[in-house]
Structures are given as structure tokens and as C-alpha cells.
Amino acid sequence: MNILFLCTGNSCRSLLSEAIFNHLAPEGWRALSAGSQPTGQLNPRAVALLQRKGISTEGYYSKSWDALPVTPDAVLTVCGSAAGETCPAYLGPVLRAHWGVDDPSHLVGSDEEIEAAFEQTYRIIRARIEAFLAAPTLSQAALDRIGTLGAAC
Predict the structure, then answer these.
(1) What is the pTM of this model?
(2) Is 153 considered catalytic here?
(3) In sequence order, what DSSP letters do the residues of 87-102 get, joined into one string?
(4) CA 56 → CA 10, 29, 114, distances in Å?
(5) If you average pLDDT over every residue of the chain, what do you get?
């Protein structure tokens, strides 16, 4: 099972999703992340957060969806619609769902406020991935329901 987490820049939320999923997933399940317009670099706060949580970031990089090594079985977009972002649409015969999360890297505020936003994003993504991995079946309805856990978008 290959899951693609997709966002425009592939530097923060999709990276967090890929790393958390791969940290929690059973043998034979793999997440990838990509962007329609990758930034070419990972968000340093996202990398530091993963490392603090004991989640490896080795081998991760910001990449285009044009360079995927496998065809995904499901595509989960994580762009935050509340932030006014335009989520890319993956065109392929796969299950798709929108798991929108606001981008903590766009927050303007104190270091404490920004770190709190990254922690909240991590909690939302992790809760959704845990629900995904616990789901008895992967239906469109289940994916859509999971995408509403943790926050309204």
C-alpha cells in the first residue's frame, strides 16, 4: 500500500504526514510526499519537530509529483483550505481525500506561538494517520471522515 501526501510546496505538512505515517505504518505500507510546485527545501521547524518526536527525517526531501517512484493507492491532500491555498489535484485512478491543515509555517507571531502551531499541526496529522491505520477498510467515506478529525477546515 502506497499513500501519497500531496501539497503545493512539499516542505512542511506533506513532509510531516509522510514521516509520521512511515513511523507508524505496518510492514508493507509506505507513504510518499510530493508537491505540484516543490520549494526544493524542507521547512527547518518541521524537521526539528519530527526529530524531537523521535521520527527519522533521513532521506526526505522536497520533491515534485512528477518524480514519484511508484503509483500511489491513495492520495491525501493536506493543503489548508482556510489558508486560501489552492490544492493540487493528482490525476490518476486512485482513492483521494482532502485532509486540509493550515500551514504553520505561514504564521506570523512569537516563537512560542509558531511552535504551538507546529505542535497542533503535528497532533492533527498524527490523529488522522492513527485513525487511517486503525480503519477496518479504506473506503472513500472513511477517508473523508478521517480528514475532518482534529480541526475544521
Answers:
(1) 0.91
(2) no
(3) -----SSSEEEE----
(4) 17, 16, 22
(5) 89
